Amino acid sequence: MKIAFFTENSYKGGLDTFLINLFNAWPDEQDELALLCNQSHPGLKTIKSQTRRNISIEEYTYFYTTSMALGQSSFSISKWKIVRAFFVLSYRLLEYILLFPWYVLTLTIKFRNSNYDRLMVVNGGYPASLLCRCAAIAWRFSGKKTKVIFNFHNYAAPTPWYNAYFENFIDKEVNKASSYFISVTQHCLDSLRSRTTFKDSQKLHFILNGIENPNPHQVRPNALSQRPYCLMLATYEPRKGHLFLLQAFKKVVEKLPSIKLKIYGYSGKKHEKDLVTNEVRRLGLEENVELHDFHDDKISLLAHTALLVVPSQSEESFGLTIIEAMALGIPVVTTDVGGMPEVMEGSGAGKVCSASNSDEFADAILHILQDANLVEEMGERGMITFANKYDASLMANEYNTIIKEA
């Protein structure tokens, strides 16, 4: 069976991790897997380098998916505010009257001429990418006898009143084309019900994310004294909670002056990372906090840390780094945002704190770092939880089954 996965993405991070682990753990060796992805996706190189299974990758380009349109071009002009404003405004003016029919038409032709047996659309959130929704609709119009699996990884946004007519129409067409709408936690899945078409839908289903076990032999983590820093792995978007974390870490440093915090993440927009840099300076944390760009080898970073911190303030549907830390026996401190409490529930692998209380977050960090026995206990519980719930083979088997039922 030939199975296509269609996505559009402008950030590298969790969605790439999902695809890589899904491909590598796919249970049926006879299946031919294909990824259709925008050529400008910053994470495409990572997908290519880390996917071990033989898959075909088709890179597509539409005007609004180019690096110039996304402000990611090597030409400085693409980052000028007036240029960005032009692309954003022109897209908004054209998305329904021109882009929607164009996308559907061109993708319908592509799918009709393809030999794909199944299609899964992989979207960041919902509605998110117009192109992804058009891919689902085009699959139906292309005459394929199967329906689409529509997969989304972040929260669905309610339909704005000013474009409700167009959005409701597209939602209905996507719904007709799809057999299932799959998200990563029940909490994230339920957000889709905020949109009229899906309010009472019976097609909603969730499959927990999974990753390949980076610690297959259950090797015990290093002693706490050998891992003297906390780690945050996230894009430099404000919703990820960098400023909240820095406020908490200021209190941690007062009790543990030698402790370090290392932050790694993709900075798609320069001003987002600058905001974090300025806050580090304002709080006088230059000696304790390091800011780095995205690092491909997250596992090596996690393996040498004392504690993973996930201070997200909104729209955190799952938190893949949480289960990566669990697999390695690294304790986790998170906020009670989105699906993260669902992922941490019953694991005993760390602490869940209020996203509005930086003092509580600081106290949780201190409580763990100052108790080596607790670190050991949380680490062991995390590894057990990972093996029982979050191994990639469990996730891949579920997707394999549901795609072939479409």
Structure report:
With 406 residues, this protein is an alpha/beta fold. The chain has 2 domains: 2-212 and 392-404, Rossmann fold (3-Layer(aba) Sandwich), CATH 3.40.50.2000; 224-390, Rossmann fold, CATH 3.40.50.2000. It has helices at residues 14-24, 44-50, 81-112, 130-141, 164-177, 186-190, 242-255, 270-282, 298-303, 320-327, 340-344, 358-369, 372-390, 392-404; strands at 2-7, 32-38, 56-60, 118-123, 148-152, 178-183, 204-206, 229-233, 260-265, 289-293, 307-310, 332-335, 350-353. The strands form 2 sheets. Strands 3-2-1-4-5-6-7 form a 7-stranded parallel β-sheet, sandwiched between helices. A 6-stranded parallel β-sheet has the order 10-9-8-11-12-13, with helices on both faces. Strand 8 (229-233), helix 7 and strand 9 form a beta-alpha-beta unit. Helix 3 (81-112) packs parallel to helix 4 and helix 4 packs across helix 5 (164-177). The radius of gyration is 22 Å and the shape is globular. The chain starts with a strand and ends with a helix. The mean pLDDT is 93.
Summarize the biggest pleated sheet. 7 strands, parallel
Strand order, main sheet: write it out: 3-2-1-4-5-6-7
**Overall body shape:** globular
| Helix-strand sequence | EHEHEHEHEHEHEEHEHEHEHEHEHHH
Low-confidence stretches: none
Corresponding CATH architecture of the largest domain: 3-Layer(aba) Sandwich
What is this structure, in a nutshell?
Helix content is 42%, strand content 16%. The protein is an alpha/beta fold.
Summarize the topology.
Elements: E1 2-7, H1 14-24, E2 32-38, H2 44-50, E3 56-60, H3 81-112, E4 118-123, H4 130-141, E5 148-152, H5 164-177, E6 178-183, H6 186-190, E7 204-206, E8 229-233, H7 242-255, E9 260-265, H8 270-282, E10 289-293, H9 298-303, E11 307-310, H10 320-327, E12 332-335, H11 340-344, E13 350-353, H12 358-369, H13 372-390, H14 392-404
Parallel strand pairs: 1-2, 1-4, 2-3, 4-5, 5-6, 6-7, 8-9, 8-11, 9-10, 11-12, 12-13
